[in-house]
Amino acid sequence: MTDILPFLRSLISVSGLSGYEAPVADLIKETWRPLVDEISISRVGSLHGLKRGTGASPRSSLMIATHMDAIGMRVSKVVDGFLHITNVGGIDVRVLPGAEVTVHASGSDEELPAVVAMRPARFLPESAGDKVLTIEHLLVDTGLLPRAVERKVRVGDLVSFANEPFELAGDVLSGHTLDNRASVAALTICLQELQNKPHVWNVWATATVQEETSFLGAYSSAFELRPQMAIVVDGCFAKGPGASGWQTFQMGKGVGLGLGPNMHPFLHNRLRELAERLEIPWFLDVTPGHSGTDAFAVQITAEGIPAALVEFPIRYMHTPVESISLKDIQRTGRLLAEFVTSLEADFADTIVWE
Ligand SMILES: [Zn+2]
Questions:
Q1: How does DSSP classify residue 156?
Q2: What is the whole-number distance in angstroms between the Cα of residue 185 and the centre of ligand 1?
């Protein structure tokens, strides 16, 4: 199996905030191009890679969707050379102070290095006390003098995380945007494995836009591609200090399979049986309603598309130090590839509602 770490490192070092995914889409496109038969960008910017199967036409197709957009920030106000910010997607504001960021300055078309900071505690209003500050109290400092900031930065400019990916002990990688570029890496492993494995179904490798903000990419790609079924890959909550409930899962212990009204039980069971047969460790993620992932958007598109959710645990979700186990990503990629090769030509007709 190829080492996915270099690609994953480059994936999270390229920007692509929700609604502005072109830079990361370019990188994924070039990586997928030799692995698929056709590759194109949808009307709203999602990436569609088609790997053709060998079955007779009309040939069924499976969409495997991974969202490529990132959470981040946007300039809301410029005051005395400092930038005020608001969020793009759901961001954990508690860990923003001290973050290294890039300001995508549209006035000068520059990428400015900056840090997120706040006023010293003694200069904050008493009401703020020792409480966690809201995003309105945070500032972004580029180091530039006020006049230069006024010239270069405009209200509405994007601000993205800039900290480098960091390898911790064991096989843990820490960095921003592992939700959900780690899924893109898993799908890439799947495509690599499929190079030497015949499969009957067509596979649409899909990198969607705007999952963090509107699910636009998943809705529109599912509608355009109209697959017979879909698998969505995304992160779930890892166990960690203070995170030990039934909806948290141990990192490095296997692939997560979602089960609930958002997923088709028939597909779920097929994935579960396959994992067991191949001795790929897996865990069950019981999801009571809307999974909060692209799986929901795909499921309710067009006539309805049977969907499954495959997951890997992320510690410190939606922070600049999201952490994952690389083993989980390798196993996810392998399970996806094995699922594809296991599909019989008439599998879609055998899906039943119990
Ligand atoms: Zn995600």
A1: T
A2: 13
Gap from CA of 234 to ligand 1 centroid (Å)? 5
Cα distances from 350 to residues 90, 258, 269, 342, in angstroms, run 39, 21, 13, 14
Q: Are 297 and 219 in contact (CB under 8 A)?
A: yes
Q: Could you tell me the distance, in angstroms and rounded to a whole number, from the CA of residue 296 to the centre of ligand 1?
A: 12
CA distance 202 to 51: 6
Please give the distance, rounded to the nearest whole angstrom, from the Cα atom of residue 321 to the centre of ligand 1: 15
Cα 151 to ligand 1 centre (Å): 35
Contact 88, 213 (CB under 8 A): yes
| Strand residue runs (E) in the chain | 38-41, 47-51, 61-67, 72-79, 82-88, 100-105, 110-118, 138-141, 158-161, 166-167, 172-175, 202-208, 229-237, 255-259, 282-286, 307-314, 322-325
Ligand 1 midpoint to CA 212 (Å): 7
Could you tell me the distance, in angstroms and rounded to a whole number, from the CA of residue 180 to the centre of ligand 1? 5
- Ligand 1 centroid–CA 132 distance in Å is 25
- Which residues, by Cβ under 5 Å, contact ligand 1, an ion? 179-180, 234
Label the pairing between strands 72-79 and 158-161. Answer: antiparallel
User: Looking up tokens 């690599």, which residue turns up?
Assistant: 192
Please write the tens of the pLDDT for every residue from 110-153: 999 999 998 777 777 777 767 778 898 899 999 999 999 999 99
Residues 263-311 have pLDDT tens digits of: 999 999 999 999 999 999 999 999 998 999 999 999 999 999 999 999 9
Cα(187)–Cα(193) distance, integer angstroms = 10
- pTM comes to 0.95
